[in-house]
Write a structure and sequence with these properties.
Elements lengths: L7 E6 L5 H11 L4 E2 L3 E2 L14 E2 L2 H9 L3 E7 L2 E6 H9 L4 E4 L2 H10 L4 E6 L3 H11 L4 H17 L5 E4 L3 H13 L1
Parallel strand pairs: 1-7, 1-8, 2-7, 3-4, 8-9
Antiparallel strand pairs: 3-6, 5-6
Helix pairs in contact: 1-7
The structure holds adenosine-5'-diphosphate and guanosine-5'-monophosphate (5GP).
């Protein structure tokens, strides 16, 4: 008997908009959803663990994996490389699992080209001021990294017009409800 193919949901949003917070709540309530763990050349933040938050690898290893065709998509963001492992996604989808990728816009558009049935969801801030406030309040980046991330905001919001859905993360509860209704119908 053929198992039904899983569905792929791609979530993007500006740094500090609340993607991690929203996805944490979503996965807690729906543990059957599987979150992809990306590879990155970024240094771990305090508390982040290899194999849990990301696979932390150096640039040389990352580029070797790119050459070997191991990524379904990859992109450079604010000076670091990030990529999604192709083998994991293919295996999970063919097992009928529903997957979540939390990736930036260039990678998301690569996924849409390769897998047109994937669903692209962009999380918007209520305002740029509130976004900067959340990013600073999180206290995880130095000033240069904050400026770099804010610099990407306008380009990303422009890109989000190509997404299937856009959700404003004003109230967490409301935004979570909207996300659930997109995923579960
Ligand atoms: P991202 O993963 O998009 O970079 P985070 O999930 O780390 O963002 O959230 C950034 C900060 O904003 C965190 O301190 C988080 O607690 C806060 N935050 C997230 N969603 C909301 C919301 N709806 N209202 C107010 N603060 C929020
Ligand atoms: P952060 O450094 O804040 O963890 O992530 C920075 C950006 O990289 C975020 O927009 C995040 O969604 C994105 N990102 C994380 N993993 C991947 C990935 O595998 N591919 C791509 N293209 N972007 C990713």
């Amino acid at each position: 008997m053929n198992k039904q193919h899983g569905r792929l949901f791609v979530i993007s949003g500006c740094s500090g908009v609340g993607k991690g917070t929203l996805l944490g709540l979503l996965l807690k309530q729906h543990p059957e959803l599987k979150l992809s763990i990306s590879a990155t050349t970024r240094a771990p933040r305090p508390g982040e663990k290899d194999g849990i938050n990301y696979f932390f690898i150096d640039r040389q290893e990352f580029l070797k994996e790119v050459d070997n065709g191991e990524f379904l998509e990859w992109a450079e963001f604010n000076g670091n490389c990030y990529g999604t492992k192709k083998a994991w996604v293919e295996k999970m989808l063919s097992n009928g699992e529903n997957l979540i990728l939390e990736i930036e816009t260039n990678g998301a558009l690569q996924i849409k080209q390769k897998l047109p049935e994937s669903v692209l969801i962009f999380i918007l801030p209520p305002s740029i001021e509130e976004l900067e406030h959340r990013l600073r309040g999180r206290n995880t980046e130095d000033e240069a990294a904050i400026q770099g991330r804010l610099h990407e905001v306008r380009r990303e919001i422009e890109c989000s017009k190509q997404y299937d859905y856009r959700i404003v993360n004003d109230s967490l509860e409301r935004a979570l409800g909207e996300l659930e209704s997109i995923i579960f119908g």
